Amino acid sequence: MSDNRPVVAVVGRPNVGKSTLFNKLAGKRISIVEDTPGVTRDRIFTEVEWLNHYFTLIDTGGIEPDNGDIILSHMRNQAMLAMDMAHIILFVVDGKSGLTAADREVAQILRKTKKPVILVVNKIDSQSQFDNVYDFYELGLGVPFAISSANSMGLGDLLDEVVQNFPEGLNTEYDEDIIRVAITGKPNAGKSSILNNILGEERVIVSPIAGTTRDAVDTYVEKNGQKFLLIDTAGLRRKSKIYETVEKYSVIRSMAAVDRADVVLIVIDAKEGITEQDTKVAGIAHDEGKACVFVINKWDLIEKDNKTLGNYTKDVKEKFPFMMYAPVIFVSAKTNQRMNKILETVEYVASEHAKRVSTSALNDVIGEAVMLNQPPSDKGKRLKIYYGSQTGVKPPKFTLFINDKNLTHFSYQRYLENKIRENFGFEGTPVQFEYREKNRK
Fold it and tell me: Where do the annotations place GTP 1 binding (predicted)?
């Protein structure tokens, strides 16, 4: 992990309550929790704080050592990767169903890691069930911690043990200097492939099966001294296709990922073109005031002439007229074409998203704009703009002090926005306006 933070992986066979434990420790609902084995299929990352110690927690797909199913074998690989990355492993077992052959096999895998393993016996909901814990001593992984994730019992003692096992020399303090990036788009647009390409390792399951990535996955990466938190999301789907509650959670999570992000990558399949769902996620990102970049993936599959790129860019701008500010980049995760542009563009639009301009420079631009094109009037009364001030960032927000809010018009606001962009940039970010009536004496 590039931010040198302690990493704790939650592993175990399916359906022992790993995701419930993960959500309790994270303090919010992040992992999908459902009584279906194999629901958590990718590694899920979150930051956890305990007594001023910060660490990264990873939830993994359940390990099923002898199952040949394609998704389950992927899950097993993901758990292995998580264990490779982790400094500490929480091995979760089910105190209600008791010790199983699969638990013994998982324990054997974990012993080979030579890393601190904390044995967590979950679903011990009452004192009468405590005798179930003793069976797990047989695994030879030390004293088991009896907990109930559902009832939040025993979690404090468990976290104390986790913190005590942190290796020396790691950074457990909070770091705000991170650009948070949501990778969004339709299923199979290549979001996971883009993430894997950026990371240079297979961090997220990539599969031709649509909807393979069901959870949002947080991954840290550092480039040229800048830290990024990449959130790979489950793609937004048409509501009519959401048959399972699992899919419903995933759609909600895509929206939540946009909410957490500073920059939203809207990944579009070059071959399929812009879809209704792309329009939807772009609209959400714009309304939430997020910096945005259109990433046209699978560009290697398009037959091109010298007009193809220009025409495609024009088409994107026409389909998203409210987002003329968003850059459009053309990449191929498969062939590595222009992939280096993604984080460069993210860093640039993040700086624009956080940009401030001076009040005097802003008012010079507004004054010149008003001289060139008079504000609208209604029944002989004209809008007067006394002065403006930038009152926010992420996104940039401008407050204009005026004579009468009823005289404001969207078209004139768009004109002012264009003038502000011509002079100050703000590429990749929406800008917002607020009007205040100035009481004259």
Answer: 12-19, 59-63, 122-125
Domain membership of residue 432 as a residue range: 359-437
Q: Is residue 172 part of a domain?
A: no
Q: Please say whether the beta carbons of 56 and 6 come within 8 A.
A: yes
286 and 424 both lie in a single domain: no
How many domains, the chain?
3
Q: Residue ranges for the binding site for GTP?
A: 12-19, 59-63, 122-125, 185-192, 232-236, 297-300
- When the pLDDT of each residue in the chain is averaged and rounded to a whole number, the result is 82
Cα torsion 229, 234, 236, 242: sign: negative
Q: Note the pLDDT of residue 211.
A: 52
What is the arithmetic mean of pLDDT over 288-310? 95
Residue 70 shares a structural domain with residue 128: yes
Q: What's the gap between Cα 269 and its chain centre? A: 20
Annotated binding site: 12-19, 59-63, 122-125, 185-192, 232-236, 297-300
Binning pLDDT at 50, 70 and 90, where does residue 61 land?
low
pLDDT of residue 235: 45
CATH number at residue 285: 3.40.50.300
On whether the CB atoms of residues 284 and 255 are closer than 8 A, the answer is yes
